Every structure is written in C-alpha cells, then in structure tokens.
Amino acid sequence: AAKLRAGAVTSRELTEAALARAHATQSTLNAFKLILDEEALAAADEADRRIAAGESTPLLGVPTAIKDDTDLAGHPTAFGCPGEFPPAAEDGAIVKFLRRDGAVIIGKTNSSELGQTSVTAGPAFGITRNPWNLDHTPGGSSGGTAAAVAGGVVAAAVGSDGAGSVRIPAGWT
Length: 173
Hints:
By secondary structure, the protein is an alpha/beta fold. The chain is built from six helices and six strands, in the order ααβαβαβββαβα. It has helices at residues 2-6, 11-25, 37-52, 93-100, 143-150, 167-172; strands at residues 32-35, 63-67, 104-109, 121-122, 126-127, 156-158. The strands form two sheets. A four-stranded mixed beta sheet has the order 1-3-2-6, sandwiched between helices. A hairpin with a 3-residue loop joins strand 4 and strand 5. The mean pLDDT is 95.
C-alpha cells in the first residue's frame, strides 16, 4: 500500500505478480479454490485510475484473497465442499467493504469442508500445504488463506474463525 501511494509500483504490477505467484504455487501449496485473473486485473486497472485521480484508501490497489466461505458475486460459495453451487447473487459484507476501499480480490482460498476441521483438506480441492514445510498442513479451516499470506502470494487475505479457524493457521504458518 505504501509503495502504491508513493507511485513506486502500480496495482496492475502488484496484481500480475500476485496472480503469477498464485498460479506458480498452486501445485505445491494448493491455497486457492478459484483464481480470478481477468476480474483481478480489471479491478487493478480501476484502482490505478482511482490512485491517479488522487484517491487514497488503506487498501486501494492491494491484491487480497478471500476464504471460500465468503460470498463473491458471480461465483459459487462452496464452503470447501465438493459439488455444484449456484453463483452468489451479491458480495458478502466484507467483500463489499474491500471493494469499496479498492482492494483487488485475486481469488477464493481453500477451506476445510464446512469449516469443521483444523486441517485444510478435502474431496473438493485436495490438500493445502504449509509454505514453511510442504509435509505439514497450514491448519484449518482458513488454511488456504494462511498459506496464501505466509507463502507470499498476497499480503492480506480474509479468513473466518468460529473455533480457531484463523488462530490455528496463523500459529502454524
């Protein structure tokens, strides 16, 4: 965010780098359920226009990710479950705030099925790995979010926590 505000980098450059890292680490970390190349680049271009117009918000132009339990308009919210799900009609509340403030959402991160286990693995997407040791889990249920941040894919991502779903992955990664 500081580099964006200083003009040292564009949101498009940061977003292209985050998308490249997301794709490059998918075969090892498997942090993402969905990567949104076209949507993210369009949002980055819009953020760059807003920055050029003098606008400034804390997350304007910053690539981020959201957990698969959060509605993202036009995309399914599977809660880590296998199967077909209808696309969400509208963004969840936190996504609305992120978009308002100019954050660039590059994708949805893996979650344990229904957020019920402390590991992020399941029949819908396989096993998400800890970037510090690929033989270990990043924890769960926000393991995809934790792996994406700890693995350097994005600087920030949204998780959720009912019984340790953010705290466990934060501790393990």
